[in-house]
User: Which sequence fits this backbone?
């Protein structure tokens, strides 16, 4: 019985040794104290303990790897379009571009193979690598449009521009398309009600932006109570969504 147990342990150890992998690391060192030179044709001087003290010059294990250049086979959001040569970190390239088959290694043959044809150049689908990401970000938020509670107003594109700037987006007024129906106030019946406007990016992509009216007064006693995380609460539509002219 003991012989069988010993033989099993030996076999397990033999199989485990085959799974070990060598770690290839290189450390560049230099002596802290240089040994003295010896005369020609004489026996070298015996080195002391201090001569075996080394200082680390470079550890290749933690050395930053250079970027890798690849050719994109198709449009990749946030990276580039088909045929573009991009330079990115090796870890990102392997996991997000090479393994999914979205890119290939940079060679003259691959550059010529995946370059855009004249038809593909004329049919522009994306204005830039980051335009689609911007559309997704705009469509994922609910914009708070703060309007005056005391003075009359009519909603204009510059109101949306100012609200976007506070939310971290910079947009020109000519890129903002408001609903055709006139929105004016102050009107507390429109408080926290939702409407949509269209944001045009680079004259190509369009994002549907959700907005909500919030009234604000300079008099602290006239201000409405603050609603925590109001964008998570359900809201009624401000305009008649059944009307074809309510928005574009």
Assistant:
């Amino acid at each position: 019985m003991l012989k069988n147990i010993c033989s099993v342990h030996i076999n397990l150890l033999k199989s485990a040794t085959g799974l070990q992998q060598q770690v290839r690391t290189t450390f560049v060192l230099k002596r802290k104290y240089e040994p003295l030179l010896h005369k020609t044709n004489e026996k070298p001087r015996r080195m002391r303990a201090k001569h075996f003290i080394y200082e680390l010059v470079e550890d290749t294990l933690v050395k930053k790897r250079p970027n890798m250049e690849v050719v994109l086979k198709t449009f990749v959001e946030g990276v580039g379009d088909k045929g573009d040569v991009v330079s990115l970190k090796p870890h990102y390239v392997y996991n997000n571009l090479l393994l999914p088959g979205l890119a290939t290694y940079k060679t003259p043959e691959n550059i010529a193979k995946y370059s855009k044809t004249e038809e593909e150049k004329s049919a522009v689908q994306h204005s830039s690598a980051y335009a689609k990401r911007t559309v997704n970000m705009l469509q994922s938020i609910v914009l708070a449009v703060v309007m005056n509670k005391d003075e009359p107003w009519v909603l204009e594109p510059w109101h949306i521009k100012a609200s976007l700037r506070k939310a971290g987006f910079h947009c020109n007024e000519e890129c903002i398309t408001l609903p055709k129906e006139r929105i004016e106030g102050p009107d507390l019946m429109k408080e926290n009600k939702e409407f949509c406007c269209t944001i045009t990016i680079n004259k190509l992509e369009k994002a549907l932006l959700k907005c909500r009216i919030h009234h604000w007064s300079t008099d602290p006693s006239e201000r409405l109570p603050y609603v925590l995380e109001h964008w998570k609460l359900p809201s009624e539509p401000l305009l008649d969504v059944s009307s074809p002219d309510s928005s574009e």
The first helix runs from residue 2 to 17. Helices lie at 2-17, 90-98, 108-113, 118-122, 131-139, 157-166.
